[in-house]
Amino acid sequence: MVKIRDIELGDFPLLLAPMEDVSDPPFRKLCKQHGADLMYTEFISSEGLIRDAAKSVQKLDIYEYERPIGIQIFGSEIESMKRTTEIVEKTNPDIIDINYGCPVKKVACKGAGAGILQDIPKMVEMTKEIVKTTHLPVTVKTRLGWDDDTKYIVEVAERLQDVGIEAISIHGRTRKQMYKGDADWSLIAEVKNNSRMRIPVFGNGDIDSPQKAVEYKNRYGVDGVMIGRAAIGYPWIFREIKHFIETGGEELAKPEIGERVGAAKEHLRMSVEWKGEILGINEMKRHYTNYFKGISHFKPYRTKLVTSMDLAEINDTLDEILVSF
Which of 87, 98, 102, 284 is catalytic? Predict the structure, then answer.
């Protein structure tokens, strides 16, 4: 049984990666329904939360059915991150997660996210202060290093454990790689196999099928896997992996068109309800391709779905897909 403090996650937990403008409550609800064991919010800016910025505050929305749920925070200033931790704690998540992995320029170049990988002592000090600030378990999401010359993750993970984190998720790329090339899990395995490590080690990067999840589980010995891009528009990935593991290698049938349309409509409805019509419709656009992946002659319908800003028209198109396929 993998545990983060007293939170039981099962024998091989599947985590939903925090993804900006993706892992919001509507999407998390679908992933939870299909087997995600632990989910994280979109990352929340410490400076934004302290300023009471509407977008940052809205990301604090969590619901009982999501538990266990972690709220992820990022920032470059230790005092701001401590204040943010105090604000977040009041919303009663199960876990506080620190983002030391986001590679995007506007985050990393300010010394936050993966940017802090250029200053390991500060990373360790910030983590220590956040752990001291909260009674909740603190976890970390990070990368192998800033670039090929600074892959210090084995030492970094040990030092973060020593200041009190209770689990670590490692994306098998450097910041310089962004999302290009193959994720290197060999260093994730080194972290897991370090005899001094006592906390759960979760691997992240390129898990896009049940076969790969099991292969990486067996080859690298991680405690669980974190799934990001493969879950976008395809929450069924979690149940497919679980079925594959439980049955010793039997593939679960892909969702039929009725289930795909039903999920897309429900996701759209919740997205509009939670974010408003314009933002809700816009942010659904990244999901449609995966909702209907593998369906031949789908392109004209996809074009309609991603170009229309009329809610009734989008729902009509989804109904049309149901009849046509």
Answer: 102
What's the rounded Cα separation, in Å, for the pair 207 and 227? 6
Start-to-end CA span in the chain (Å): 42
* 99 strand-pairing partners: 141
CA 175 to chain centre: 17
The per-residue pLDDT for range 6-20, each reduced to its tens digit, is 999 999 999 999 998
CA 7 – CA 237 distance, rounded (Å): 23
How far apart are alpha carbons 282 and 22 in whole angstroms? 11
Q: To which residue do tokens 């999840």 refer?
A: 213
Domain map (residue ranges) of the chain: 3-246, 257-324
**Residue 31 is a catalytic residue:** no
Of 50-54, 58-62, 63-67, 234-238, minimum mean pLDDT range: 50-54
Q: What is the CATH number of domain 3-246?
A: 3.20.20.70
